[in-house]
Amino acid sequence: MQYLPIFVQLTDKPVLVVGGGSVALRKAGTLLSAGAKLIVVAPEFAAEFIAWQQQGKAELIHGYFVPSLLDNKLLVIAATNSDRVNAAVYKAATARNMLVNTVDDQAKCGFIFPAIIDRSPILIAISSFGTAPVLARRLREKLEALLPQHLGTLAQLVGGFRSKVKAKFTSFAARRQFWEGVFNSAVVREVQANQLDKAEQHLQQLLNAPQQLSGEVYIVGAGPGDPELLTLKALQLMQQADVVVYDYLVSPQIIELVRRDAEKICVGKKAGEHSVPQQDTNQLLIDLALSGKKVCRLKGGDPFIFGRGGEEIQALVPHKIAFQVVPGITAAAGCAAYAGIPLTHRDHAQSVQFVTGHCKSEGSEPEWLSMSKANQTLVIYMGLMKAGHIQQQLIRAGRSGETLVAIIENGTRLEQRIVSGQLQDLAQLVQQHQISSPALLVIGDVVSLQQDLHWFGQRPQPAVLNQPAVFSQATVFNQKLSQMA
Protein backbone atom coordinates (compact mmCIF):
# COMPACT_ATOMS: atom_id res chain seq x y z
CA MET A 1 0.00 0.00 0.00
CA GLN A 2 1.80 3.08 -1.29
CA TYR A 3 -0.53 5.56 0.43
CA LEU A 4 -2.61 5.24 3.61
CA PRO A 5 -6.24 6.15 2.84
CA ILE A 6 -7.49 8.44 5.62
CA PHE A 7 -10.28 11.00 5.90
CA VAL A 8 -9.14 14.36 7.28
CA GLN A 9 -11.33 16.84 9.14
CA LEU A 10 -10.70 20.16 7.34
CA THR A 11 -13.50 22.33 8.73
CA ASP A 12 -12.04 25.81 9.38
CA LYS A 13 -8.51 24.46 8.91
CA PRO A 14 -6.16 26.72 6.87
CA VAL A 15 -5.10 25.27 3.54
CA LEU A 16 -2.86 27.06 1.03
CA VAL A 17 -3.37 26.74 -2.73
CA VAL A 18 -0.58 28.08 -4.93
CA GLY A 19 -2.01 28.95 -8.33
CA GLY A 20 -5.09 30.75 -9.60
CA GLY A 21 -5.97 28.95 -12.82
CA SER A 22 -8.37 26.18 -13.80
CA VAL A 23 -6.32 23.34 -12.27
CA ALA A 24 -6.08 25.13 -8.94
CA LEU A 25 -9.79 25.89 -9.16
CA ARG A 26 -10.71 22.21 -9.24
CA LYS A 27 -8.65 21.42 -6.16
CA ALA A 28 -9.92 24.51 -4.35
CA GLY A 29 -13.54 23.51 -4.99
CA THR A 30 -12.96 20.12 -3.39
CA LEU A 31 -11.33 21.77 -0.36
CA LEU A 32 -14.23 24.21 0.05
CA SER A 33 -16.74 21.36 -0.04
CA ALA A 34 -14.84 19.85 2.91
CA GLY A 35 -15.10 23.12 4.83
CA ALA A 36 -11.47 24.21 4.60
CA LYS A 37 -10.36 27.78 5.26
CA LEU A 38 -8.98 28.53 1.81
CA ILE A 39 -5.98 30.82 1.16
CA VAL A 40 -4.91 31.19 -2.48
CA VAL A 41 -1.78 32.91 -3.78
CA ALA A 42 -1.28 33.80 -7.45
CA PRO A 43 -0.50 36.79 -9.65
CA GLU A 44 -3.87 36.35 -11.42
CA PHE A 45 -7.11 34.57 -10.53
CA ALA A 46 -9.94 32.87 -12.40
CA ALA A 47 -13.33 34.57 -12.03
CA GLU A 48 -14.62 31.88 -9.64
CA PHE A 49 -11.85 32.65 -7.17
CA ILE A 50 -12.83 36.31 -7.16
CA ALA A 51 -16.48 35.35 -6.60
CA TRP A 52 -15.49 33.12 -3.66
CA GLN A 53 -13.55 36.01 -2.14
CA GLN A 54 -16.59 38.27 -2.43
CA GLN A 55 -18.69 35.58 -0.74
CA GLY A 56 -16.17 35.23 2.08
CA LYS A 57 -15.23 31.69 1.10
CA ALA A 58 -11.60 32.34 0.21
CA GLU A 59 -8.73 34.71 0.95
CA LEU A 60 -6.82 35.78 -2.17
CA ILE A 61 -3.20 36.94 -2.07
CA HIS A 62 -2.08 38.71 -5.24
CA GLY A 63 1.59 37.87 -5.73
CA TYR A 64 4.05 35.00 -5.85
CA PHE A 65 4.78 32.11 -3.53
CA VAL A 66 7.23 32.62 -0.67
CA PRO A 67 7.94 29.94 1.98
CA SER A 68 6.56 32.14 4.80
CA LEU A 69 3.07 31.61 3.37
CA LEU A 70 3.28 28.04 4.69
CA ASP A 71 3.26 29.24 8.30
CA ASN A 72 0.37 27.74 10.30
CA LYS A 73 -1.12 25.92 7.29
CA LEU A 74 -2.31 22.33 7.53
CA LEU A 75 -1.94 21.41 3.84
CA VAL A 76 -0.57 22.98 0.69
CA ILE A 77 -1.44 22.39 -2.97
CA ALA A 78 0.97 23.40 -5.73
CA ALA A 79 -1.16 23.95 -8.83
CA THR A 80 0.65 26.41 -11.07
CA ASN A 81 1.70 25.96 -14.71
CA SER A 82 5.34 26.44 -13.71
CA ASP A 83 7.39 23.35 -12.80
CA ARG A 84 9.92 25.62 -11.11
CA VAL A 85 7.34 27.20 -8.81
CA ASN A 86 5.71 23.85 -8.04
CA ALA A 87 9.12 22.36 -7.17
CA ALA A 88 9.84 25.31 -4.86
CA VAL A 89 6.53 24.79 -3.04
CA TYR A 90 7.25 21.08 -2.66
CA LYS A 91 10.76 21.69 -1.35
CA ALA A 92 9.64 24.29 1.18
CA ALA A 93 6.71 22.17 2.40
CA THR A 94 8.69 18.94 2.83
CA ALA A 95 11.38 20.87 4.72
CA ARG A 96 8.65 21.72 7.24
CA ASN A 97 7.23 18.16 7.26
CA MET A 98 4.01 19.47 5.72
CA LEU A 99 1.75 17.40 3.52
CA VAL A 100 1.87 18.75 -0.03
CA ASN A 101 0.08 17.85 -3.26
CA THR A 102 1.70 18.85 -6.53
CA VAL A 103 -0.86 18.56 -9.31
CA ASP A 104 0.05 16.04 -12.04
CA ASP A 105 3.43 15.28 -10.43
CA GLN A 106 3.13 12.18 -8.27
CA ALA A 107 6.80 12.24 -7.26
CA LYS A 108 6.19 15.55 -5.51
CA CYS A 109 3.09 14.49 -3.60
CA GLY A 110 2.93 13.74 0.11
CA PHE A 111 -0.81 13.16 -0.33
CA ILE A 112 -3.10 12.72 -3.32
CA PHE A 113 -6.70 13.56 -4.14
CA PRO A 114 -8.85 10.48 -4.81
CA ALA A 115 -11.91 10.24 -7.02
CA ILE A 116 -14.82 10.79 -4.64
CA ILE A 117 -18.37 9.43 -4.40
CA ASP A 118 -20.29 11.66 -2.01
CA ARG A 119 -23.36 10.29 -0.28
CA SER A 120 -22.69 12.24 2.89
CA PRO A 121 -22.19 11.04 5.52
CA ILE A 122 -21.21 8.05 3.33
CA LEU A 123 -18.08 8.92 1.40
CA ILE A 124 -16.16 6.61 -0.94
CA ALA A 125 -12.68 7.48 -2.19
CA ILE A 126 -10.99 5.70 -5.12
CA SER A 127 -7.35 6.12 -6.05
CA SER A 128 -4.78 4.63 -8.38
CA PHE A 129 -1.97 6.31 -6.37
CA GLY A 130 -1.59 8.78 -9.22
CA THR A 131 -0.69 6.12 -11.80
CA ALA A 132 -4.03 5.99 -13.66
CA PRO A 133 -6.36 8.82 -12.62
CA VAL A 134 -8.64 8.35 -15.63
CA LEU A 135 -9.17 4.70 -14.64
CA ALA A 136 -10.01 5.77 -11.08
CA ARG A 137 -12.56 8.24 -12.41
CA ARG A 138 -14.14 5.55 -14.59
CA LEU A 139 -14.48 3.30 -11.55
CA ARG A 140 -16.13 6.17 -9.72
CA GLU A 141 -18.63 6.59 -12.54
CA LYS A 142 -19.55 2.90 -12.40
CA LEU A 143 -20.02 3.00 -8.62
CA GLU A 144 -22.02 6.23 -8.85
CA ALA A 145 -24.53 4.37 -11.02
CA LEU A 146 -24.73 1.46 -8.55
CA LEU A 147 -25.07 3.35 -5.28
CA PRO A 148 -28.55 4.79 -4.56
CA GLN A 149 -28.91 8.43 -3.61
CA HIS A 150 -30.76 7.62 -0.38
CA LEU A 151 -27.66 6.07 1.22
CA GLY A 152 -26.73 9.32 2.94
CA THR A 153 -30.20 9.79 4.40
CA LEU A 154 -30.21 6.20 5.64
CA ALA A 155 -26.80 6.68 7.26
CA GLN A 156 -28.01 9.83 9.03
CA LEU A 157 -31.08 8.02 10.35
CA VAL A 158 -29.23 5.03 11.78
CA GLY A 159 -26.47 7.30 13.07
CA GLY A 160 -29.03 8.90 15.38
CA PHE A 161 -29.70 5.49 16.93
CA ARG A 162 -26.08 4.41 17.53
CA SER A 163 -25.96 5.44 21.18
CA LYS A 164 -29.32 3.80 21.89
CA VAL A 165 -28.22 0.55 20.25
CA LYS A 166 -24.91 0.60 22.09
CA ALA A 167 -26.70 1.08 25.41
CA LYS A 168 -29.00 -1.88 24.77
CA PHE A 169 -26.50 -4.33 23.29
CA THR A 170 -23.26 -4.64 25.22
CA SER A 171 -21.47 -6.99 22.82
CA PHE A 172 -20.22 -6.08 19.38
CA ALA A 173 -21.67 -9.29 17.88
CA ALA A 174 -25.14 -8.44 19.20
CA ARG A 175 -24.96 -4.90 17.84
CA ARG A 176 -23.79 -6.11 14.49
CA GLN A 177 -26.60 -8.63 14.28
CA PHE A 178 -29.14 -5.93 15.13
CA TRP A 179 -27.86 -3.63 12.40
CA GLU A 180 -27.80 -6.47 9.86
CA GLY A 181 -31.48 -6.98 10.64
CA VAL A 182 -32.18 -3.28 10.19
CA PHE A 183 -30.53 -3.13 6.80
CA ASN A 184 -32.53 -6.18 5.70
CA SER A 185 -35.80 -4.67 6.94
CA ALA A 186 -38.46 -2.34 5.56
CA VAL A 187 -36.60 0.60 7.09
CA VAL A 188 -34.43 0.81 3.97
CA ARG A 189 -37.42 0.80 1.63
CA GLU A 190 -39.15 3.48 3.69
CA VAL A 191 -36.11 5.76 3.51
CA GLN A 192 -35.90 5.16 -0.22
CA ALA A 193 -39.58 6.21 -0.52
CA ASN A 194 -38.81 9.36 1.54
CA GLN A 195 -41.09 8.14 4.36
CA LEU A 196 -38.61 9.21 7.00
CA ASP A 197 -41.01 9.44 9.95
CA LYS A 198 -42.29 5.96 9.22
CA ALA A 199 -38.73 4.64 8.88
CA GLU A 200 -37.74 6.15 12.24
CA GLN A 201 -40.79 4.63 13.96
CA HIS A 202 -40.03 1.24 12.42
CA LEU A 203 -36.42 1.43 13.55
CA GLN A 204 -37.54 2.22 17.11
CA GLN A 205 -39.88 -0.77 17.02
CA LEU A 206 -37.02 -3.04 16.00
CA LEU A 207 -34.95 -1.70 18.88
CA ASN A 208 -37.76 -2.26 21.37
CA ALA A 209 -38.45 -5.80 20.17
CA PRO A 210 -36.81 -8.63 22.13
CA GLN A 211 -33.59 -9.70 20.45
CA GLN A 212 -32.30 -13.23 20.38
CA LEU A 213 -28.67 -13.81 19.44
CA SER A 214 -28.73 -16.80 17.10
CA GLY A 215 -25.80 -18.23 15.23
CA GLU A 216 -25.68 -19.43 11.66
CA VAL A 217 -23.17 -21.12 9.37
CA TYR A 218 -22.62 -20.15 5.76
CA ILE A 219 -20.97 -22.91 3.72
CA VAL A 220 -19.41 -20.81 0.94
CA GLY A 221 -17.48 -21.81 -2.16
CA ALA A 222 -14.63 -19.38 -2.86
CA GLY A 223 -13.86 -20.70 -6.34
CA PRO A 224 -10.42 -21.75 -7.60
CA GLY A 225 -8.48 -18.60 -6.67
CA ASP A 226 -9.28 -15.58 -8.84
CA PRO A 227 -11.28 -13.27 -6.53
CA GLU A 228 -13.32 -12.03 -9.50
CA LEU A 229 -14.83 -15.53 -9.76
CA LEU A 230 -16.55 -15.13 -6.38
CA THR A 231 -20.34 -15.00 -6.56
CA LEU A 232 -22.11 -11.88 -5.30
CA LYS A 233 -23.75 -13.88 -2.53
CA ALA A 234 -20.41 -15.30 -1.42
CA LEU A 235 -19.00 -11.79 -1.11
CA GLN A 236 -22.05 -10.57 0.79
CA LEU A 237 -21.85 -13.37 3.36
CA MET A 238 -18.08 -12.94 3.74
CA GLN A 239 -18.80 -9.34 4.69
CA GLN A 240 -21.56 -10.27 7.15
CA ALA A 241 -19.75 -13.01 9.04
CA ASP A 242 -18.35 -12.54 12.55
CA VAL A 243 -15.91 -15.42 12.00
CA VAL A 244 -14.42 -16.85 8.80
CA VAL A 245 -13.11 -20.42 8.92
CA TYR A 246 -11.05 -21.03 5.78
CA ASP A 247 -8.73 -23.50 4.04
CA TYR A 248 -5.26 -23.09 2.56
CA LEU A 249 -6.81 -23.38 -0.91
CA VAL A 250 -8.58 -20.05 -0.48
CA SER A 251 -6.29 -17.47 -2.07
CA PRO A 252 -4.90 -14.56 -0.01
CA GLN A 253 -6.59 -12.13 -2.41
CA ILE A 254 -9.97 -13.59 -1.44
CA ILE A 255 -9.18 -13.49 2.29
CA GLU A 256 -8.46 -9.77 1.81
CA LEU A 257 -12.16 -9.32 0.92
CA VAL A 258 -13.31 -10.59 4.32
CA ARG A 259 -14.63 -7.95 6.70
CA ARG A 260 -11.65 -6.33 8.44
CA ASP A 261 -12.85 -6.89 11.99
CA ALA A 262 -13.97 -10.50 11.45
CA GLU A 263 -12.05 -13.25 13.22
CA LYS A 264 -10.18 -15.44 10.74
CA ILE A 265 -9.36 -19.08 11.52
CA CYS A 266 -7.34 -21.27 9.15
CA VAL A 267 -8.04 -24.99 9.38
CA GLY A 268 -5.63 -26.14 6.69
CA LYS A 269 -6.77 -28.71 4.15
CA LYS A 270 -3.78 -28.90 1.84
CA ALA A 271 -1.99 -32.02 0.70
CA GLY A 272 1.24 -32.60 2.62
CA GLU A 273 0.57 -29.74 5.07
CA HIS A 274 -0.61 -29.75 8.68
CA SER A 275 -4.36 -29.28 8.95
CA VAL A 276 -7.04 -29.41 11.60
CA PRO A 277 -8.75 -32.84 11.69
CA GLN A 278 -12.19 -32.75 10.07
CA GLN A 279 -13.99 -33.67 13.28
CA ASP A 280 -12.30 -30.76 15.05
CA THR A 281 -13.36 -28.40 12.26
CA ASN A 282 -16.93 -29.68 12.58
CA GLN A 283 -16.88 -29.05 16.33
CA LEU A 284 -15.41 -25.59 15.81
CA LEU A 285 -18.33 -24.63 13.55
CA ILE A 286 -20.80 -25.98 16.09
CA ASP A 287 -19.23 -24.13 19.02
CA LEU A 288 -19.02 -20.84 17.16
CA ALA A 289 -22.61 -21.00 15.94
CA LEU A 290 -23.99 -22.00 19.35
CA SER A 291 -22.25 -18.98 20.85
CA GLY A 292 -24.34 -16.77 18.55
CA LYS A 293 -21.73 -16.08 15.85
CA LYS A 294 -22.38 -15.76 12.15
CA VAL A 295 -19.80 -18.15 10.70
CA CYS A 296 -18.60 -18.21 7.11
CA ARG A 297 -17.04 -21.58 6.29
CA LEU A 298 -14.99 -20.56 3.25
CA LYS A 299 -13.83 -23.36 0.99
CA GLY A 300 -11.75 -23.42 -2.17
CA GLY A 301 -13.77 -24.35 -5.25
CA ASP A 302 -17.27 -25.64 -4.55
CA PRO A 303 -18.19 -26.98 -1.10
CA PHE A 304 -20.15 -29.91 -2.53
CA ILE A 305 -17.49 -31.08 -5.00
CA PHE A 306 -14.71 -32.76 -2.99
CA GLY A 307 -15.11 -29.96 -0.43
CA ARG A 308 -16.58 -32.00 2.46
CA GLY A 309 -19.35 -29.44 2.75
CA GLY A 310 -21.91 -32.20 3.12
CA GLU A 311 -20.03 -33.71 6.07
CA GLU A 312 -19.90 -30.38 7.86
CA ILE A 313 -23.61 -29.74 7.38
CA GLN A 314 -24.38 -33.21 8.69
CA ALA A 315 -22.55 -32.22 11.87
CA LEU A 316 -24.66 -29.04 12.23
CA VAL A 317 -28.08 -30.62 11.73
CA PRO A 318 -28.36 -32.45 15.12
CA HIS A 319 -27.73 -29.14 16.90
CA LYS A 320 -30.48 -27.37 14.88
CA ILE A 321 -28.00 -24.78 13.66
CA ALA A 322 -29.25 -22.69 10.74
CA PHE A 323 -27.12 -22.90 7.62
CA GLN A 324 -27.06 -21.98 3.98
CA VAL A 325 -24.87 -23.13 1.09
CA VAL A 326 -23.36 -20.91 -1.59
CA PRO A 327 -21.97 -22.82 -4.58
CA GLY A 328 -18.60 -21.85 -5.98
CA ILE A 329 -16.90 -22.38 -9.32
CA THR A 330 -15.24 -25.74 -8.90
CA ALA A 331 -11.55 -26.08 -9.75
CA ALA A 332 -12.26 -28.30 -12.77
CA ALA A 333 -14.41 -25.67 -14.46
CA GLY A 334 -12.36 -22.64 -13.43
CA CYS A 335 -8.85 -23.98 -14.01
CA ALA A 336 -9.68 -25.66 -17.30
CA ALA A 337 -11.32 -22.50 -18.63
CA TYR A 338 -8.33 -20.35 -17.67
CA ALA A 339 -6.02 -22.92 -19.26
CA GLY A 340 -7.95 -22.84 -22.56
CA ILE A 341 -9.10 -26.45 -22.20
CA PRO A 342 -12.82 -27.14 -22.79
CA LEU A 343 -13.79 -30.14 -20.68
CA THR A 344 -16.19 -31.37 -23.37
CA HIS A 345 -15.97 -30.95 -27.13
CA ARG A 346 -17.93 -32.62 -29.92
CA ASP A 347 -14.76 -33.80 -31.66
CA HIS A 348 -12.78 -34.91 -28.60
CA ALA A 349 -14.86 -35.65 -25.49
CA GLN A 350 -18.55 -36.37 -25.09
CA SER A 351 -18.37 -36.75 -21.30
CA VAL A 352 -16.29 -35.67 -18.32
CA GLN A 353 -15.53 -37.29 -14.98
CA PHE A 354 -14.44 -35.51 -11.80
CA VAL A 355 -12.55 -37.76 -9.40
CA THR A 356 -10.30 -37.25 -6.41
CA GLY A 357 -6.86 -38.66 -5.84
CA HIS A 358 -7.67 -38.95 -2.13
CA CYS A 359 -10.04 -41.53 -0.69
CA LYS A 360 -10.84 -42.64 2.84
CA SER A 361 -8.07 -44.80 4.22
CA GLU A 362 -10.37 -47.81 4.21
CA GLY A 363 -11.84 -46.93 0.82
CA SER A 364 -11.62 -49.17 -2.22
CA GLU A 365 -9.81 -48.36 -5.46
CA PRO A 366 -11.65 -46.13 -7.97
CA GLU A 367 -13.34 -47.60 -11.00
CA TRP A 368 -10.27 -47.36 -13.20
CA LEU A 369 -12.02 -49.04 -16.14
CA SER A 370 -14.77 -46.41 -16.31
CA MET A 371 -12.16 -43.66 -15.91
CA SER A 372 -10.16 -44.99 -18.87
CA LYS A 373 -12.79 -44.70 -21.56
CA ALA A 374 -11.86 -42.98 -24.80
CA ASN A 375 -13.63 -39.76 -25.85
CA GLN A 376 -13.89 -38.77 -22.21
CA THR A 377 -12.12 -36.07 -20.18
CA LEU A 378 -10.86 -37.10 -16.78
CA VAL A 379 -10.25 -34.39 -14.17
CA ILE A 380 -8.43 -35.45 -11.03
CA TYR A 381 -8.44 -33.31 -7.90
CA MET A 382 -5.63 -33.72 -5.37
CA GLY A 383 -3.79 -36.17 -7.58
CA LEU A 384 -0.17 -34.99 -7.28
CA MET A 385 0.93 -37.34 -4.52
CA LYS A 386 -0.46 -40.36 -6.38
CA ALA A 387 0.48 -39.28 -9.91
CA GLY A 388 2.55 -42.43 -10.50
CA HIS A 389 -0.23 -44.71 -9.27
CA ILE A 390 -2.83 -42.88 -11.37
CA GLN A 391 -0.65 -43.14 -14.48
CA GLN A 392 -0.05 -46.83 -13.96
CA GLN A 393 -3.67 -47.77 -13.24
CA LEU A 394 -5.17 -45.80 -16.13
CA ILE A 395 -2.78 -47.35 -18.66
CA ARG A 396 -3.36 -50.80 -17.17
CA ALA A 397 -7.14 -50.23 -17.51
CA GLY A 398 -6.76 -49.45 -21.21
CA ARG A 399 -6.12 -45.72 -21.53
CA SER A 400 -3.42 -45.04 -24.09
CA GLY A 401 -0.09 -43.94 -22.68
CA GLU A 402 -0.01 -41.27 -25.40
CA THR A 403 -3.19 -39.64 -24.07
CA LEU A 404 -2.56 -35.95 -23.56
CA VAL A 405 -2.42 -34.57 -20.02
CA ALA A 406 -2.24 -31.08 -18.55
CA ILE A 407 -1.16 -30.27 -15.03
CA ILE A 408 -2.59 -26.91 -13.97
CA GLU A 409 -0.86 -25.38 -10.97
CA ASN A 410 -2.46 -22.38 -9.20
CA GLY A 411 -5.19 -22.26 -11.79
CA THR A 412 -6.97 -18.91 -12.39
CA ARG A 413 -4.34 -17.06 -10.33
CA LEU A 414 -1.67 -14.72 -11.62
CA GLU A 415 0.97 -17.38 -10.91
CA GLN A 416 -0.90 -20.02 -12.94
CA ARG A 417 1.42 -22.56 -14.58
CA ILE A 418 0.53 -25.32 -17.05
CA VAL A 419 2.69 -28.32 -17.84
CA SER A 420 1.44 -30.57 -20.63
CA GLY A 421 2.61 -33.90 -21.93
CA GLN A 422 1.49 -37.52 -22.15
CA LEU A 423 -0.13 -39.84 -19.62
CA GLN A 424 2.84 -42.23 -19.73
CA ASP A 425 5.08 -39.41 -18.44
CA LEU A 426 2.70 -37.97 -15.82
CA ALA A 427 4.69 -38.86 -12.70
CA GLN A 428 7.93 -37.68 -14.27
CA LEU A 429 6.35 -34.38 -15.30
CA VAL A 430 5.17 -33.72 -11.74
CA GLN A 431 8.59 -34.49 -10.31
CA GLN A 432 10.73 -32.78 -12.94
CA HIS A 433 8.74 -29.53 -12.86
CA GLN A 434 8.31 -29.62 -9.09
CA ILE A 435 4.57 -29.12 -9.31
CA SER A 436 3.04 -28.16 -5.98
CA SER A 437 -0.49 -27.90 -4.64
CA PRO A 438 -2.98 -26.61 -5.55
CA ALA A 439 -2.85 -28.42 -8.87
CA LEU A 440 -5.34 -30.17 -11.09
CA LEU A 441 -4.80 -33.02 -13.57
CA VAL A 442 -6.73 -32.92 -16.85
CA ILE A 443 -6.44 -36.06 -18.96
CA GLY A 444 -7.89 -36.39 -22.45
CA ASP A 445 -7.70 -35.25 -26.05
CA VAL A 446 -9.24 -31.85 -25.18
CA VAL A 447 -5.81 -30.85 -23.88
CA SER A 448 -4.74 -30.48 -27.53
CA LEU A 449 -7.00 -27.41 -27.83
CA GLN A 450 -5.14 -25.26 -25.32
CA GLN A 451 -2.64 -23.95 -27.87
CA ASP A 452 -5.48 -22.42 -29.90
CA LEU A 453 -7.84 -21.49 -27.05
CA HIS A 454 -5.26 -20.14 -24.61
CA TRP A 455 -6.15 -16.63 -23.36
CA PHE A 456 -4.95 -16.19 -19.76
CA GLY A 457 -1.35 -15.70 -18.65
CA GLN A 458 1.68 -16.92 -20.55
CA ARG A 459 1.16 -19.30 -23.44
CA PRO A 460 1.58 -22.89 -22.17
CA GLN A 461 4.50 -24.82 -23.61
CA PRO A 462 4.58 -28.63 -23.80
CA ALA A 463 7.10 -30.01 -21.34
CA VAL A 464 10.45 -31.37 -22.51
CA LEU A 465 11.61 -34.30 -20.43
CA ASN A 466 15.32 -34.40 -19.71
CA GLN A 467 15.85 -38.08 -20.44
CA PRO A 468 17.57 -38.97 -23.73
CA ALA A 469 15.43 -42.07 -24.21
CA VAL A 470 12.24 -40.01 -24.27
CA PHE A 471 11.10 -37.91 -27.24
CA SER A 472 10.79 -34.20 -26.73
CA GLN A 473 7.28 -33.50 -25.47
CA ALA A 474 7.00 -30.67 -27.98
CA THR A 475 7.62 -33.19 -30.77
CA VAL A 476 5.20 -35.75 -29.37
CA PHE A 477 2.60 -33.06 -28.74
CA ASN A 478 2.80 -31.78 -32.31
CA GLN A 479 2.63 -35.34 -33.65
CA LYS A 480 -0.52 -35.91 -31.63
CA LEU A 481 -2.06 -32.69 -32.94
CA SER A 482 -1.33 -33.69 -36.55
CA GLN A 483 -2.92 -37.10 -35.96
CA MET A 484 -6.10 -35.43 -34.72
CA ALA A 485 -6.25 -32.88 -37.52
UniProtKB/TrEMBL annotation:
Residues 150-207 form the Sirohaem synthase dimerisation domain. Keywords: Cobalamin biosynthesis, Lyase, Methyltransferase, Multifunctional enzyme, NAD, Oxidoreductase, Phosphoprotein, Porphyrin biosynthesis, S-adenosyl-L-methionine, Transferase. Residues 215-485 are annotated as: Uroporphyrinogen-III C-methyltransferase. It comes from the Bacteria. Its EC number is 2.1.1.107, 1.3.1.76, 4.99.1.4. Signal peptide: none annotated. The modification Phosphoserine is found at residue 128. NAD(+) binds at residues 22-23, 43-44. Residues 217-427 form the Tetrapyrrole methylase domain. GO terms for molecular function: NAD binding; precorrin-2 dehydrogenase activity; sirohydrochlorin ferrochelatase activity; uroporphyrin-III C-methyltransferase activity. Pathway: Cofactor biosynthesis; adenosylcobalamin biosynthesis; precorrin-2 from uroporphyrinogen III: step 1/1; Porphyrin-containing compound metabolism; siroheme biosynthesis; siroheme from sirohydrochlorin: step 1/1; Porphyrin-containing compound metabolism; siroheme biosynthesis; sirohydrochlorin from precorrin-2: step 1/1; Porphyrin-containing compound metabolism; siroheme biosynthesis; precorrin-2 from uroporphyrinogen III: step 1/1. Then it catalyzes the NAD-dependent ring dehydrogenation of precorrin-2 to yield sirohydrochlorin. Finally, it catalyzes the ferrochelation of sirohydrochlorin to yield siroheme. One of its GO terms (biological process) is siroheme biosynthetic process. This is Siroheme synthase. S-adenosyl-L-methionine binds at residues 224, 300-302, 305, 330-331, 382, 411. In the C-terminal section; belongs to the precorrin methyltransferase family. The active site is at residues 247, 269. It catalyses: siroheme + 2 H(+) = sirohydrochlorin + Fe(2+); precorrin-2 + NAD(+) = sirohydrochlorin + NADH + 2 H(+); uroporphyrinogen III + 2 S-adenosyl-L-methionine = precorrin-2 + 2 S-adenosyl-L-homocysteine + H(+). NCBIfam families: cobA_cysG_Cterm, cysG_Nterm, PRK06136.1, PRK10637.1. PROSITE patterns: SUMT_1, SUMT_2. Residues 1-203 are annotated as: Precorrin-2 dehydrogenase / sirohydrochlorin ferrochelatase.
